[in-house]
């Protein structure tokens, strides 16, 4: 069965700026150091237009890890005005850029961190998977202990883990997301190859990049086709036996900590089914796109 979407880009109102502020506020609410709050505020500044799509554009990116912006983060920040701003307030930029100093801000999957908590709870509302009341309940059941995010109960940890699983299955690692990354990346790659775009353009905004490419639509049928694909004008399906392009996609899963009789435990330790889910969902997703 072929799918057709109204649009594959700009589908929510959530921005990187809003998310970065959210990480900052979350860290502030849980009384972390000023340095950790600053690190949270600037943690995503090296993202390009179209975010993780860049991992499908440049060979130095990784479709299975989505780490391009992390790889360039230190260099990007050091070449910005941020070091001078922090120096004014006697904050050491090298300390800020060392993630080992801020375990509440950032941790690898399947652990929780401020970054992961903010985008998942924010997306719960923006994708209408849940509501503000549900998000408030999760936040009210969270605490920090020994630089770890811990839920107060097994029930709240399991509910959050299942919510995150749903977000991953439908949005973060779902088939339409794979199509979005592939089609937008194809458009950007083509624009770079033809000279319609320069690498520096990718550090502007989605709208600015699209505006620049649209100026070249007349007389370029390949560019028009690529535009039609990102705008949902071309149907697509997952077809392993007959496909146009093969795509890997980062998959996300969490294994929250919670308190049980005064001890901190991991959800998978007491729920063997969840242990199986974590093992399976930690693997990258794989799709085979056929355009109709």
CATH topology: Hypothetical protein af1432
Spatially, the strands of the biggest sheet line up as 1-2-5-6
What is the percent of helical residues? 40-55%
Domain count = 1
Could you give the order of the helices and strands? HHHHHHHEEHHHHEEEEHHE
Low-confidence stretches: 1-12
Would you identify the CATH H-level superfamily? Answer: Hypothetical protein af1432
Terminal Cα span: 10 Å
Radius of gyration, in angstroms, nearest whole number: 20 Å
Helical/strand content category = alpha+beta
CATH class: Mainly Alpha
Q: What portion of residues belong to β-strands?
A: 5-15%
Number of strands: 7
**Taking all residues together, what is the mean pLDDT?**
94
**CATH architecture classification name:** Orthogonal Bundle
Major sheet, described briefly? 4 strands, mixed
Question: What is the number of helical segments per DSSP (H or I, 4+ residues)?
Answer: 13
3D shape: globular
Provide the descriptors you would attach to this structure in a database record.
292 residues; alpha+beta; Hypothetical protein af1432; four-stranded mixed β-sheet; three-stranded antiparallel β-sheet; 13 helices
Kindly describe this structure:
The structure is a single chain. The protein is an alpha+beta fold. It has a single domain, classed as Hypothetical protein af1432. Helices cover about 45% and strands about 10% of the residues. The protein is built from 13 helices and seven strands. The strands form two sheets. Strands 1-2-5-6 form a four-stranded mixed β-sheet. A three-stranded antiparallel β-sheet has the order 3-7-4, covered by helices on one side. It is globular and about 70 Å long. Residues about 1-10 have low confidence and may be disordered.
